Amino acid sequence: MEVSDEVAIQITDMNKWYGTFHVLRDIDLTVYRGERIVICGPSGSGKSTLIRCINRLEEHQQGSIVVDGNELNSDLKNVDKVRSEVGMVFQHFNLFPHLTILENCTLAPIWVRKVPRKEAVDRAMHFLEKVKIPDQANKYPGQLSGGQQQRVAIARSLCMMPRIMLFDEPTSALDPEMIKEVLDTMIELAEEGMTMLCVTHEMGFAQAVANRVIFMADGQIVEQNEPKEFFNNPKSERTQQFLSQIIGH
């Protein structure tokens, strides 16, 4: 699992406001290709907003975000380029309820990437196998458990062959027994060297796969480190407080 020295995402002095509320402050972050980053912090700290800015679901007002050499600005061509390279998995699965699992996975490749239908179906089956639910291909989302739907959402993102995957609290809407199956899927992706940014409270996952853990509070990056150091030796008082609340020591 090599991290390359090629930059996948470069965020420089980025700021974002909602009206007068300063939601992200002076964010500087360099993500290298193949790196797996876990972003944690109390709710309202700006974690989800940060990763939503990376594929322009949210607009930043100041500073720059460059993804794969494309700067995210008001140029829609660049936004489309970035979105086609960056997969996103949300807290709620956002599957189309009226389409089968297979149709959910082939829709974007066929319409956006212009992939021939047969190839799109083969690719979808490949990724449904990877997330261990090929037998659900002809069912509808409503017939699947939450954990299965989230794995479909991951497969659907992979069908676009993204270079980077963003996960926004992918397990927080799931029952505890389903969390493991989704995390296992993500761990497998991580082992294949996918560049990943994941907002999550699952600290076991952070310890297992992250190269770097980033702690955010009040719209700022307060602390970042490799997992062992981050958990065993947090520097900032805010980080110590947060960890004692979620890990309980």
TrEMBL record:
Keywords: ATP-binding, Nucleotide-binding, Transport
A matching Pfam family: ABC_tran
Recorded GO MF terms: ABC-type amino acid transporter activity; ATP binding; ATP hydrolysis activity
Any coiled-coil regions, as ranges: none
Similarity remark: Belongs to the ABC transporter superfamily.
ABC transporter domain boundaries: 9-243
Name of the protein: ABC glutamate/glutamine/aspartate/asparagine transporter, ATPase subunit bztD
Annotated source species: Maritimibacter alkaliphilus HTCC2654
Source taxon at top rank: Bacteria
Xref: InterPro entries: AAA+_ATPase, ABC_ATPase_HisP-typ, ABC_transporter-like_ATP-bd, ABC_transporter-like_CS, MetN_ABC_transporter-like, P-loop_NTPase
Transmembrane segments: none
